Amino acid sequence: MAEVVSPVPGAGRREPGEVGRARGPPVADPGAALSPQGEIIEGCRLPVLRRNQDNEDEWPLAEILSVKDISGRKLFYVHYIDFNKRLDEWVTHERLDLKKIQFPKKEAKTPTKNGLPGSRPGSPEREVKRKVEVVSPATPVPSETAPASVFPQNGSARRAVAAQPGRKRKSNCLGTDEDSQDSSDGIPSAPRMTGSLVSDRSHDDIVTRMKNIVCIELGRHRLKPWYFSPYPQELTTLPVLYLCEFCLKYGRSLKCLQRHLTKCDLRHPPGNEIYRKGTISFFEIDGRKNKSYSQNLCLLAKCFLDHKTLYYDTDPFLFYVMTEYDCKGFHIVGYFSKEKESTEDYNVACILTLPPYQRRGYGKLLIEFSYELSKVEGKTGTPEKPLSDLGLLSYRSYWSQTILEILMGLKSESGERPQITINEISEITSIKKEDVISTLQYLNLINYYKGQYILTLSEDIVDGHERAMLKRLLRIDSKCLHFTPKDWSKRGKW
C-alpha cells in the first residue's frame, strides 16, 4: 500500500513488532562442528551479523537465499527471519556464524504447493501447517445510523457517538495489530485475481524474493531498491540503472540517458494536470492512453512495493502522479493508482511515496487526495488490501486524524450534546464505514454508558491529535482541484 508512503527504513532499522532479539555474538554450541564454507547452500539458516537501529551489533537468524562467486570470493544473499524483506542483503563469509548453521531438511520428493511443484528449496520450518482461526461471535459495534451525543469525562465535555441501546457491553474494543499485512476490518484479505495489482504469491519463487536492481538514478536522486522488480534481465547486472525522471524510460548508462534527454520533450508526467497549489501538482494518467509511461511507473514502484504485482495490461487503471515543480520541470514525488471500475469500492490500488520524499507529509497528502476524488465522485472508498506495513501505518494515522477532526469540530445546539452517526462521518469524509468503525475501535474510544455505545475522547487523545495536526502542514485545498469524474461503465473498453 506501499506503498508507498511512510518513513524510509534505515539500513539497520528494526521493523515494528520485532522485539526481544538477543544482541552480541551468539554463544556457540560446543558440540557443533564448524561447517566448511563450501557446504553453505541455499536454504541454510544461521545467525548473521548486522547493525541495528542503535548502531549495535546483533546476530539475528537468517536464511541463505542465494550464493554467488565473484573473483574467487563467495557472497551470500540473506533474508533475516522476522524482518522485512527490504533489509535483505548480500553478505560476506565473515558475517556468518557457521557454528549455528541449520541445513535444509531432506525430503523424499519435491515439495508441492496446491498440487504444483514447489520452487523454493527446502529449509527448516519451511512447511508451516495451516492454522484454522476460530472466529468469535461478532463484537457489537456502534449502529451506523444511531445519533452521537456528548458525554462528560473527568468533568469536561467530550464528544461521543451513541449506538443502539440494549446491547450487551462488549468486553474490549478490538484494535488491529500495527504490523499486520492484511485487513482485519471485516474485508476479505484474499486478493482478487481480476483487475487487481495485489500479488497472490502463487508464483513467488527464489528469483522474485531477491532484489535484482542495485541502484536507480532518478533525476538528482539515487535510490536503493527494497524489493524485486521485473526489469529486463540484462539490466540487473548494472551497478546503476538510469531513468528519465519525466517519462521514466530506463537506460543502461549515463550516456544513454543524456542522449535520451536531448530527444525527450516531456517536463511533466503525460496526462491532465487536475490539481495545483504552490509547487505541488497532481496529474491524471490513463493507463490505456499512456501505456508506456504507466508500465515504466509500475516497474519503478515495484522496487518499493512488495505486496503488489505488475501487470503489463495497465488499461483498467488510472494513475495519479504527485509532482514538485521547480525551474527544471515537474519532478515525481509519489503516486497512487485506482481501477476505473471497482466493485469493491476501492479508491486506491497501489500507493507510494518515493524514498527521498518520505517523512515529509507527502504520504498523507496522497491519501487525502484519493479521498478528495471520492468526495467529488460521491462515493466512499477504501484502499485495496493487503496494505504494506508502512502503508497500513499511514492509513491508520490519516483515518484517526480525519475522524478526530470531525468529532472535535462538533458543536452543541440548544445546550444539548452534539450528535452524529457513523454514516454521517462516512459521508463527510468518504471513508468507508468499515474503516471508520475499525479506526474507532483501534483508538479504543468506544464505551458503554447508560444503555448505549458512545465514543469518549480523553484529554490524552485530544492533546495528541492537536500536536499531530500542528505538524501536518500539507493539506489538499478542494478549491484547487479541477476534476470531472467519468462513468467508465458507459465508455466501452475504457
Low-confidence stretches: 1-38, 117-140, 148-196
Q: Structural class, from helix and strand content?
A: alpha+beta
Q: So what's the overall shape?
A: globular
Give the fraction of residues assigned to helices: 10-25%
* Count of alpha/pi helices: 7
What is the strand content? 15-25%
Alpha-carbon Rg, integer: 25 Å
How many strands in all?
Answer: 23
Order of helices and strands: EEEEEEEEEEEEEEHEEHEEEEHEHHHEEH
What order do the strands of the largest sheet run in, or round the barrel if closed? 15-16-17-18-20
- Can you give the mean pLDDT? 77
Distance between the termini: 25 Å
How many strands, what sense, and barrel or not for the largest sheet? 5 strands, antiparallel
Question: How would you describe the overall organization of this protein?
Answer:
The protein has 494 residues and is α+β, with helices and mostly antiparallel strands. The protein has seven helices and 23 strands. The protein has helices spanning 254-263, 291-302, 362-377, 389-408, 422-429, 433-442, 459-471; strands at 45-47, 50-51, 57-58, 61-70, 73-80, 89-92, 112-113, 116-117, 148-153, 156-161, 216-218, 221-223, 241-243, 250-251, 272-277, 280-286, 317-326, 329-339, 346-348, 350-353, 382-383, 446-449, 452-455. The strands form eight sheets. The chain has a five-stranded antiparallel sheet, sandwiched between helices. The protein has a four-stranded antiparallel sheet with strand order 1-4-5-6, with no helix packed on it. A hairpin with a 2-residue loop joins strand 22 and strand 23 (452-455). The longest helix has 20 residues, at 389-408. The chain is globular and about 85 Å long. The two termini are 25 Å apart.
